[in-house]
Amino acid sequence: MDALTAGLALVGLVALTTVAGLLIRAREGRAKLLANTVRVTPEDLGLRRGDLPFGSSATLVQFSSEFCTKCPATRVLLTTKAAEHPGVRHLDIDVTNRPDIANRFNLMQTPTTLVLDEAGMLAARIGGAPRPEALARALDTALRRDHGNYTI
Amino acid sequence: MATTPSNGSGTTNPLAAKPGTTGIDPRGPRFGAVITFILLGIDVILGLTGPSVESGTTWAVRITDPAFILLLVITLVFAWGTFAGIARHPYGLIFRTFIRPRLSAPTELEDPIPPTFAQLIGFLVSSVGIVLALLGVPYGLVVAAAFAFVAAFLNGVFGYCLGCQIYVLLVRAGILGRARA
Question: Which domains does chain A have, with CATH numbers?
Fold first, then answer.
């Protein structure tokens, strides 16, 4: 292959990788709001029923793994957020040794964050390090503060 | 227990590295990834213009191919980063000596374990390229170098650690992690 074609092939590789990187960046940390139809139990997360691990008004469930660059920063963000709201609790679940949990929640990356309402119903899911504004919106949904989406 | 409930009142800094390890400046591995993807890009060019894309080459041609020699060097540096740890990486030494003094203090320190794992992934992918090149498989070296290039480019330019992010997929596939259930 001549040098010009090889150079063009590399330019193509750079272009494709850049597009992939931009797509990843655009998708990362956004909240996918769910319809509160799926209930998550402590048992689903590998916890015992007696642990009472969920918050009284909402729960932020973070899935982490052993080799995870963004898990520590996510832990700080979620812990801070939970501390701002009474009744909101943060749980950090390490799925490194629990492929069953990773499969149950169809985890594609870590960190992944689930936002549960007071009944443990799934209100939102955030893949990757959560954007603060996406997290705030997801938590508002779980706390029924989204004004207009009341379900009584 | 695989869970750590936290209520926000913890006194320890959650960003701090685990006991027994030292937190590293996250810009160090990223700088290393930039050097790595530039070298891998050069290697893709060398591979495409060299004998590694042809079949029926002799051993002498395969091991004196500049693309092979460069990928071997890249693989050995990945091995260094993997087995000596990212904190003793040669590119990290360049970063600390020439780049770090010109920058402001890092806003946070990073656990060295994930970037060391990224070095392992790089080592495995480039090793596949080395083996395929030695076996004389056409385009084997170029394809492996291209995969490693994509991972290093995403890490260097976007700060995205592909191997770390999709680690959970390897756990689910049963390749990594120690299943207890």
Answer: 29-142 (3.40.30.10)
